[in-house]
Amino acid sequence: MKKKNILVVGGAGFIGSHMCKYLAKAGHQPIVLDNLSYGHRDAVKWGPLIEGSMADQTLLKHIFSTYDISAVMHFAALIAVGESVENPAIYYRNNVAATINLLQTMVEANILCFIFSSSAAVYGNPIENPITETHPLHPINPYGRSKLMVEQILEDFRHAYGLRYVSLRYFNAAGADPDGKIGEDHRPETHLIPLVLQAALGLRKDIKIFGDDYTTGDGTCIRDYIHINDLAQAHLLALAHMADGGSGGIYNLGNGNGYTVKEVIETAENVTGKSILADVIARRPGDAAILVGSSEKARKDLGWRPQYPELDVIIEHAWRWHSEHPDGYAD
Known about the structure:
Layout: E1 5-9, H1 14-25, E2 29-34, E3 49-51, H2 57-66, E4 69-74, H3 81-86, H4 88-108, E5 113-119, H5 142-161, E6 164-170, E7 172-174, H6 192-200, E8 207-210, E9 222-227, H7 228-243, E10 249-253, E11 258-260, H8 261-272, E12 278-281, E13 290-291, H9 296-302, H10 311-324
Parallel strand pairs: 1-2, 1-4, 2-3, 4-5, 5-6, 6-10, 7-9, 8-12, 9-13
Antiparallel strand pairs: 9-11
Helix pairs in contact: 1-7, 2-4, 4-5, 6-8, 6-10, 8-10
């Protein structure tokens, strides 16, 4: 696949920054569009940063006329489930309305290759595990509904305008690039592994476990964790798939193996050599006991093979980043 200019919307964030490194390593040129509301300027290392929003059609038209963009990757959604329940308006405005603006401007510029960062939240509470792409779609919060709405919009754009797209439904992105130079820095942080590692660093006194009476081996919830570089690899394979004339589609991205909250904490203690205090509190509403994804379709169609499926390796790479950057990015 020849060198391409790829617009990475949200390229200053956790997933987007790793994607940019992966694209550059593969010989492509990432062009980052990010408003830096959650992303970090210091995470943009492999191409130009254009500060702004995908809601700004004038800016998008300028980008598309300045750079010969071959494809767009979208990582710019708001992602906090609780916040989406408390303030759904901003989730529909950013995750849906602004994405429509991006897609419309792409079509007008005849840029018809799109890779979307979707979520396992589109499934809602599972009726079976592992979850396949044919599982019923019943999201239980505005965040999940916003992702499903965009997937439906993408299919309408495919029929109406010839847009080719791949939608990748993530389970739990985790880890960090092995070199420790970029990593996960959400503010506030809501993801389990970085919260556990913050406790190991003494940045928080303990880790909260939301219920230990689920029907699992140790009573805590089971989740499927996927290394951030394996996510990036899948996006690159999706890009190659469409460059080779593939029709696109929807794919789960997960390891197919689940780990309980207690297993994550115990593994982190082994990796870091630190004792991590855990405090069991009441369940959170809407938490499913088990969420594990089947990625057989991505393996078959895209040739995806995760390189870092082991939980201890995922945590080791995350620990390298967090221990060297306890306060996150300098900016």
